[in-house]
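> forwarded from #structure-qc
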């Protein structure tokens, strides 16, 4: 469960990574283990990155996301619509990043529940200020790190389809497939469904 994770700023180096997630899932399907996947991705530049340093930074995050997806979810990412794959990726990001999950749960869910479809700068600011007051480690983060995270959060929401426009901050409701909703409820992950506005 997300609660055990420490707050982290790793998302600054690993945003949505949808294409990368699919590539790693394909390798996993071939029976490769995490270390083998990591080695292959870096040695063969599976993600088609310009710099190896970018590969090294994003691979661990993608592998972490893949590891929180059960077989059914992995199957859906590979075979269902891009929209559904994006929603499952968003779920995997929440499962592997406590701070982002709390942002989704405390800011986005609340807005969608009250039919307030506007995400403002102050919403992000208030969230990060209150979290850094509660967490010593986070209180030590530089302004640069926090600002980068705010940008990444907006990008994640945009790429997942929750944010219509990064400039205006207008939010969108996600259309979750019934079988996906049933599956997440069945595996006990309704908290993530709620965080996505369900």
């Amino acid at each position: 469960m997300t609660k055990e994770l420490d707050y982290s700023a790793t998302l600054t180096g690993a945003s949505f990574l949808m294409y990368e997630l699919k590539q790693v899932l394909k390798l996993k399907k071939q029976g490769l283990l995490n270390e083998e996947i990591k080695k292959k991705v870096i040695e063969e530049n599976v993600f088609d990155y310009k710099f190896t340093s970018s590969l090294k930074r994003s691979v661990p995050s993608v592998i972490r996301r893949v590891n929180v997806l059960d077989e059914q979810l992995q199957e859906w990412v590979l075979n269902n619509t891009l929209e559904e794959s994006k929603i499952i990726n968003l779920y995997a990001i929440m499962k592997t990043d406590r701070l982002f999950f709390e942002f989704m749960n405390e800011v986005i869910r609340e807005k969608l529940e009250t039919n307030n479809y506007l995400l403002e700068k102050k919403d992000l600011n208030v969230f990060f200020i209150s979290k850094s007051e509660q967490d010593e480690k986070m209180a030590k983060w530089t302004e640069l790190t926090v600002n980068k995270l705010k940008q990444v959060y907006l990008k994640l929401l945009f790429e997942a389809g929750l944010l219509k426009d990064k400039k205006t901050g207008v939010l969108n409701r996600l259309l979750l497939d019934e079988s996906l909703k049933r599956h997440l409820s069945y595996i006990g992950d309704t908290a993530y469904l709620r965080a996505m506005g369900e």
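QC bot note: The chain has eleven helices and two strands. The first helix runs from residue 18 to 29.
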